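Quick one, tokens below:
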């Protein structure tokens, strides 16, 4: 792993966490550089950037140092909940599921 990947500074901590958590450095960099969502975190002292990759949500913490350069501090990933994936079904699929679910309960 490269401590200057993408023109930003990667701490030893983040490089270790990426290995431990099975997150590719390129995915962490892409999450930071093109997030789907971001928020400032007082407790983390920087910005938290979020992006979904397949069935995982990756979050990256970064802040600018005293020289104005971006430093990537930490990252983790969370599996998306199946409930969220189910919401992506088409309206037709949702109606059919409810109708057949109702019929199954009525027969019991």
């Amino acid at each position: 792993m490269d401590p200057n990947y993408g023109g930003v500074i990667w701490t030893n901590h983040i490089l270790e966490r990426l290995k431990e958590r099975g997150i590719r450095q390129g995915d962490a960099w892409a999450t930071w550089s093109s997030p789907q969502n971001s928020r400032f975190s007082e407790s983390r002292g920087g910005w938290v950037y979020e992006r979904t990759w397949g069935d995982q949500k990756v979050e990256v913490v970064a802040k600018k140092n005293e020289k104005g350069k971006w430093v990537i501090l930490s990252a983790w990933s969370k599996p998306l909940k199946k409930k969220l994936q189910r919401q992506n079904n088409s309206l037709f699929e949702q109606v059919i599921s409810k109708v057949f679910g109702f019929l199954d309960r009525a027969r019991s």
